[in-house]
Amino acid sequence: MSGVSGTSDTAGRSGAAGAGRTSGGSGTSIMDGTGGALGTGGRTSTPAAGGAAPATAPGRRLLRGLPWLVWRRNRTALGIGLLVTLGACALFAYERIGVMDFLHTKGSSPGSTGDLLMEFQNEFSSMFSSDTGFLTFVPALVAIFLGAPLIASEQERGTVKLVATQSTGRSRWIATTLALPLAIAVLCTTLLSAAFTWMWSPAHELAMFGDWLQGGAFDSTGPVPVAMTLFLTSCGIAFGMLIKRVVAAMVATAVFAAATSLIWTEKVRVHLGTLRSYTYPFDGEGSVLPRGSVPVDDWLASADGKLFGINTCNAPEATADACRAKLGIVNRVIQYFDYGQMAGMQWLGAGILLALTVLVLGFVIWQARRRPL
User: Fold this and answer.
1) Residue whose C-alpha is closest to residue 369's, from 157, 150, 172, 232
2) What is the pLDDT of residues 5-52, one digit of tens each?
3) Over the chain, what is the mean pLDDT?
4) Which is nearest to 135 in space by CA: 79, 194, 76?
5) Sheet containing 276-281: which strands, arranged edge to edge?
């Protein structure tokens, strides 16, 4: 079976093959996994009993040719991803109704007593915890169940060897194989991030006690989920190409995703912005940080600005007073991130992840073009 490229013209010529040609000579023929070949238009033709091609045209598809084949190969994972995305976005929209009702009734400022903050936590804490937990795991899940098997499954079954026998070429095959799943992953994570941001933003001072850095909002809103998904998924694809076994590639991707999450949380995220400092007298009434700020570290400080650990002079009162007097400690310093820094930190982190993604995908393309699959 072969796709038809062009139109047959047999009028006025006896015994001629016609002006049209089959796609075996001019189009792109890709095996569809059932023993047939798929033309560039995504159509197949079967000769009639008398040798003439049928005149019927199949229904149109949104995807044709190689993109259709990539979708067909990965339709289960991609379809589940789209359905989960739509369901989660609908859930976030429903949850926003409850959040906005609370804010319109009670207000959005935590206030000095903290009663509003505790009331909000009692009503919505578990909801925000579940939502951010889900969104934090989305990049790893996409990498494990879509990225790792994407090429490894083809290698394990041996169907990737058909690429060398088709007119499509390795470059076009690897480009389409990567582009369609990654484009759908970007679409899904963008929708999830936008929907959750829409629900979380009005209550950002109350949700997760206002801690947008450690509470999960930083990794669940803005460009970070999209960039993290692209990075981990591209790494999963690379693991699959190198290991060539689906299960082993999925395990390696899961371990790598866990290690990446730890490094991102402990070593990278806190360095994406410049810490701001608030200084107040050691025996003062306490700090008054800007609304929406996230405290990161506490210090003791001398009059000339020299910093000491918060546990310096941690001793019985008489000894502690003498210790502070000896060191000249007269102030306390709180280092924090302001809420206005959040967007810039997210875009910087996303830029780093996207740069790493480009490097990994460049390696995958080089590996596919230059070495046997």
Assistant:
1) 172
2) 444 444 344 333 333 444 343 344 444 444 444 444 444 444 444 444
3) 81
4) 194
5) 276-281, 329-337, 294-302, 307-309
